[in-house]
Amino acid sequence: MTHPYQHIITELYRIKALEFGTFKLRSGLESPFYLDLRKVVTYPALLRDICTALWNKINEKNIKYDVICGVPYAALAFSAGLSVLHGVPGLTKRKERKQHGTSKLVEGVFLPGQTCLVVEDVVTSGISLLETIAELETEGLNITDALVIIDREQGGAEALAQQDCRVFALFSITEMLDVLHDIGLLPAALYNKCYDFIRMNPGPNTDHHAATSGKHTDHVAAPQIITETHPPRLSYEELLPYAKHPAAKKLLETTHYKQTNLICAADVADPNDLINLANTVGPYICALKTHIDALTKVTPQLIEALKELAERHEFLLFEDRKFGDIGSTLLMQYTAPVFNVHQWADLITVHPIGGASSVKAMMGAGKAAQILIAQMSTEDTLTDAAYLQKAVAIAQQYPEAIAGVVAQQRVHQNPGILQFVPGIHLVATQDDKGQTYNSPEVAFAKRGADFIIVGRGIYQHQSPDYEAARYQNAGMGSLRSPARLIRLYNLCEHR
User: 401, 396, 341, 407: which is closest to 373 by C-alpha?
Assistant: First the structure.
């Protein structure tokens, strides 16, 4: 289907307001594309078309305002264009308060309490918009909405939504890529390179399109996946030949046999609660994730009881110790007689902060396959794109020791590296500890999950077995019904 603003997208490409190559961003990242809408002022017809499209968006979304103000300086031309062409009362905000004359930061006529619609050319992290909004609010204006030409899909819209400011974009960067690819201006290889960059650098607070925030962002369509480099998902049975570690094979066999990709995170402190939970949810899970060092008491009898339940209900024991140190220390911790993790755990988590040498130090010391923590689900995680890429590289280097990675997005196409996505809840939300949650459907449709990890959504429920069954059905149901998955994907994109 033709995009309603396809002509604007192609013109932006023609005048090189959207360029492709290698560009270093202010964040230090190297981007395969660059946006510079300051060039638009040299093309009056295009400027007029964009301002008309922005005006249509205002009417389409019934955005209420008294005055309008552009973020300095790139967006000033567009806010001025709206004022001239459509009679919108405009304001001009300076980057710095002038030190002479009236010393005003905001020029124009307005009254305290009036609603100001903020206009921006491109939103990336949202910092410029948030700074402008804060300064306008200091002047007594009320800000509820922002009108944006392009959303780079790197967390800005979601950051603004968390501050109760809705973002309405003419189009997202992935929509621009889709249009340019569809009409033959963007080769598939470059399309995929750009899309992978967006996917690997979504910003700290984002599910790309505010699926977790509950706020509205105005996006249209999910990016297409070009099949030559993004093969269809393999079944768990089809993944088996790619698994190199015995524990990874056992996990896939268990998942296929029991028809569950659910891992229950038993984040409890009481040993009795752990045993009761394991027995209750055992029939519905492929693995039980433990924090053995968080228990109030650990005895050989407790470990034996866990092993017996794992055998009876056919699930793996997944110790979430998150080993992270130099190799010799890791090995000592892994084999320490206090917990004897190396003797009973099938899977263990490892922070690759020490590099590949730490991973190698633990190889062969126990029966467990390592799961590297490549990315965390807290809103302010320090596991950035560079860290994520290095973690995945280590996992690909040592498949005989590493079964997969914990990550919030798919960053590779290696079927031998399984992806575990934590922070799953049937109702996407956020807690007061900075933990962000995604629904099972989002985890598989957008995060590329092979396995979902659910904690509080199960063990805090009054009927953990009932809830575990729901998560089992949600996880496997997403994979059994691709059409349903696509519908849910699109729902998340439009939420």
Answer: 407
Contact 375, 353 (CB under 8 A): no
CB 218 within 8 A of CB 168: yes
Other beta carbons within 10 angstroms of residue 59's beta carbon come to 9
Active-site residue 325, yes or no? yes
The Cα–Cα gap between 123 and 100 comes to 32
Provide the 10 A C-beta neighbour count for residue 43: 16
In 3D space, the residue among 308, 424, 303, 418 whose CA is nearest the CA of residue 369 turns out to be 418
Cα Rg of the chain, angstroms: 25
- Report how far residue 121's alpha carbon sits from residue 314's, in angstroms, rounded to the nearest whole number: 55
**pTM for this prediction:** 0.53
Q: Which residue has the tokens 């390592």?
A: 370
Q: Which tokens in the block code for residue 95?
A: 């980057």
Query: Residue type for 173, please?
Result: I
Cα–Cα distance measured from residue 334 to residue 365, given in angstroms and rounded to the nearest whole number: 8
Q: How many CB atoms lie within 10 A of CB 380?
A: 8
Tokens of 410: 């798919």
List 36, 273, 325, 465, catalytic entry: 325
The answer to whether 339 and 369 are in contact (CB under 8 A) is no
Residue 341, token pair as written in the block: 């993790």
Whether residue 76 contacts residue 69, with contact meaning beta carbons closer than 8 Å, is answered with: no
Side-chain half-sphere of 155: how many Cα atoms within 13 Å? 12
Residues in the chain: 495
CB atoms near residue 64 (< 10 Å): 10
Closest of 200, 316, 326 to residue 261, by C-alpha: 316
C-alpha span between 61 and 150 (Å, rounded): 17
The four Cα atoms 224, 228, 230, 234 give a dihedral, to 10 degrees, of 120
173: left (phi over 0), alpha (psi -120 to 50) or beta: alpha
93 as an active site residue: the answer is no
Beta strand extents in 191-274 (DSSP E only): 262-266
The rounded distance, in Å, linking the Cα atoms of 433 and 446 is 24
What distance in Å separates the CA atoms of residue 304 and residue 355, rounded to the nearest whole number? 33
State residue 287 phi and psi, 5-degree precision.
-155, 150
Residue of 39, 61, 244, 322 with catalytic role: 322
pLDDT mean for each 10 residues of the chain (495 residues): 86 96 74 94 96 95 95 92 93 72 80 95 85 87 96 86 90 93 91 84 48 34 32 80 94 95 96 96 97 94 96 97 90 91 95 87 88 82 81 90 89 86 72 58 81 93 91 82 40 37
C-alpha of 473 from chain center? 23
* DSSP for residue 353: G
